[in-house]
Write a structure and sequence with these properties.
This protein is α+β, with helices and mostly antiparallel strands and about 250 residues long. About 35% of the residues lie in helices and about 20% in strands. It has two domains: about 1-120, 2-Layer Sandwich (Alpha-Beta Plaits), CATH 3.30.70; about 125-250, no CATH class. It has eight helices and eight strands; from the N terminus they run E-H-E-E-H-E-E-H-H-H-H-H-H-E-E-E. The longest helix is centred in the first third of the chain and has 18 residues, at about 15-30.
């Protein structure tokens, strides 16, 4: 057995927000992880109201590594966490409570840098692209050549992963208008759900944590389509604010 103890010193007044983030995104994935034996969340102490403690028990190191990845000694990144903490740390023990690793700790600035690297630098790997490319509709035989599908898909995934506005899409992904239109077309035709499922199936657990804010709790489909400047709800649909000059379309949630 391996005991993993995570501690976070939260910014004053941010405990409720941090716990909501944890319970909504991290806890469901942790509970489903093979080899996870127990999860214990410490109660806040009167003298340490801003400390969050999480202890998890794993059957062996292989089970822990399957969940955390090769960098199991380090702190796992959950998008949005760095803005709520001042310092985080993790340590591991065996079943006799003998330390297996030295305590690993870092301040919020380093956590934020790692979070940015995790959420903003990722692009489709070659094997992921090969998995989804056959699901995309073929380009039209006539008319203007279609923008590169792989770059466009990378742009769509960037928006979903970071919660950015379409107009803030980096130029490296091509036109934000093209990405927005392609996403709307693929959703309307049913292509997007198949593409998303194929992409989701390629992610390991640590990668799914990075994607957690974009997922429904129990379904591998996008939860937050885009953080638009204006949106209104209409019977389960969300009308997203379109880029300038484009007409808004309903995005089904």
């Amino acid at each position: 057995m391996i005991l993993r103890v995570f501690r976070a010193r939260l910014k004053p007044g941010r405990r409720a927000t941090y716990e909501a983030l944890f319970y909504r995104h991290a806890l469901p994935l942790m509970r489903k992880a093979p080899g996870n034996v127990a999860i214990h969340i410490g109660q806040p102490q009167p003298d340490r109201p801003d400390e969050f403690v999480l202890a998890t028990v794993w059957t062996d190191l292989a089970a822990l590594q399957a969940y955390t990845g090769a960098n199991w000694r380090e702190i796992m990144i959950l998008p949005g966490e760095a803005e709520l903490v001042e310092e985080v740390g993790v340590q591991h023990f065996d079943e006799a409570f003998h330390p297996l690793t030295e305590p690993h700790a870092e301040v919020a600035a380093e956590t934020l840098r790692r979070e940015h690297r995790a959420t903003r630098s990722a692009r489709l790997r070659d094997e992921q692209w090969e998995r989804v490319r056959s699901l995309l509709p073929p380009p039209a035989r006539a008319g203007r050549p279609r923008a590169d599908d792989r770059r466009t898909l990378d742009g769509i995934l960037y928006i979903l992963r970071t919660g950015s506005r379409w107009q803030d899409l980096p130029r490296a992904y091509g036109s934000h208008v093209t990405c927005w239109r392609r996403f709307a077309e693929w959703q309307a035709s049913g292509v997007w759900e198949r593409v998303w499922q194929a992409f989701f199936d390629t992610l390991d657990v640590s990668e799914r944590l990075v994607w957690a804010p974009a997922l429904l709790p129990d379904q591998p489909v996008p939860r937050r389509r885009v953080r638009a400047s204006r949106s209104t709800s209409h019977g389960g649909s969300v009308i997203q604010a379109a880029p300038a000059g484009l007409r808004a379309r309903p995005i089904r949630g």
